[in-house]
Amino acid sequence: MSIEVRTATADDAPGICIVYNQGIADRVATFETDPRSPEDIAHWFTSPEYPVIVATEADRIVGFASTSPYGSRACYAGIREFSIYVHRQAKRRGIARKLMVSLLAAAEKAGCWKITSRIFPENTASLELCKSLGFRVVGTHLRHARLDGEWRDVVTVERSIARPDEG
Questions:
Q1: pLDDT tens per residue across all 167 residues of the chain
Q2: Domains of the chain with bracketed CATH
Q3: How distant, in Å, are the alpha carbons of 56, 61, 88, 147 from that of 35?
Q4: For residues 115 and 104, is the Cβ–Cβ distance under 8 A?
Q5: 84: buried, middle or exposed (CB in 10 Å: 19+, 13-18, 0-12)?
Q6: What are phi and psi of 51, to 5 degrees?
């Protein structure tokens, strides 16, 4: 079956939560520990400045990529943090790449000039994807936060999308 990638809507929240909650349970991509409900993520769909993209297969969500604010100061208005999750049964099929390509285009259209994320060092698939899409490693934050009582490091990646003077 073919994978379709599109902008998410609030109606996609239940399917996004299925994928997100797998990522939370697997403990390989987030410090979050509590499962999310559609109500918990409803605010994701309220602003076109922060795109959310879904990948579907046979009308079932098999992955998503989302953006969120980097910081509250006005000077950071064009910077977004991103997250990306793929359903356990859909990994290693190029879905993450399709999601990221679409997310980068949507973020640029929304006025973003830089996109960044923090990735667990052992999440080599995500680090390799980012490198292949032109992200650079900024550095490693040692002992960034605890997950299940254990200190975890994160690798920070970033990519310029458009020069700030290009509008």
A1: 799 999 999 999 999 999 999 999 999 999 999 999 999 999 999 999 999 999 999 999 999 999 999 999 999 999 999 999 999 999 999 999 999 999 999 999 999 999 999 999 999 999 999 999 999 999 999 999 999 999 999 999 999 996 555 54
A2: 4-166 (3.40.630.30)
A3: 21, 17, 16, 14
A4: yes
A5: buried
A6: -65, 150
End-to-end Cα spacing for the chain: 39
Locate the DSSP E strands across the chain: 4-7, 52-57, 60-69, 79-86, 114-119, 136-147, 150-160
Collapsing DSSP to helix, strand or coil, 67 comes out as strand
Token representation of residue 95? 């879905």
Place of tokens 């009582």: 149
From 103, 62, 98, select the one nearest 82 (Cα to Cα).
Answer: 103
Indicate the pTM of the whole model: 0.94
Q: How far apart are CA 54 and CA 76, in angstroms?
A: 25
